[in-house]
Amino acid sequence: MLGIIDYNAGNIKSLERSLTAIGAQYILSKNPAELKNCSKLIFPGVGEASYAMDQLKKTGFDSFIKDSVAEGKKLMGICLGSQIIFDYSEEGNTQCLGLLKGSIRHFSKVWESRFPDENEHKERAMLYNNLKVPQIGWNDISYLNGSSKLLNGVPESTDFYFVHSYVIQPQDPSIIKAYTMYGAMVPACVEKDNITAFQFHPEKSGKFGLQILKNFAEGEDA
Hints:
Blueprint: E1 2-5, H1 12-21, E2 26-29, E3 40-43, H2 49-59, H3 61-70, E4 74-78, H4 80-83, E5 88-89, E6 94-95, E7 102-106, H5 107-114, H6 121-130, E8 135-140, E9 142-143, E10 159-164, E11 166-170, E12 176-181, E13 185-192, E14 195-198, H7 206-218
Parallel strand pairs: 1-2, 1-3, 3-4, 4-14, 5-7
Antiparallel strand pairs: 5-6, 7-11, 8-10, 9-12, 12-13, 13-14
């Protein structure tokens, strides 16, 4: 059974419609106790990192998520939920869940890190002028490090729908299973053990987004 974590910072309606479309059974709850028997959890999220972490603490979902992952339950993070599973986010100077090692940085910081040499200032200026933040819209993904089982049936270079201003920067790059390009390499899917997270929105990305959700719903239980 799937459990959807509802902590007042999620893209819940689109996700519910998508799960209904693929015939998946799920429980949606604001109460961690009601999800404790679910073997798989979906951790959605939209909005600002510090607000989201505050809501997780108020609802008790912060410890629930950590305990569930430690027990071996499968966790799928989506958008903001793919970011605050890491240690730290620059957004609101936020200490996050720390399930994966790494930080979340604003696009501008990532671009500056890629082009630190003043001799390349024209290229940096071009990026700032032509690429808007947040990134909003469709972008194609490329596979890396063997991809993920949750991407089975999804052709490489498929477009997915992104909305974000901050970028996942994992300490271990081998956990990046798919990426897109937006002025720099942007991790689109990260995976380690029983955690898989997507920066894009599968629930808003058409048939191949539904395929990802179907893979998660129908895959082997933890």
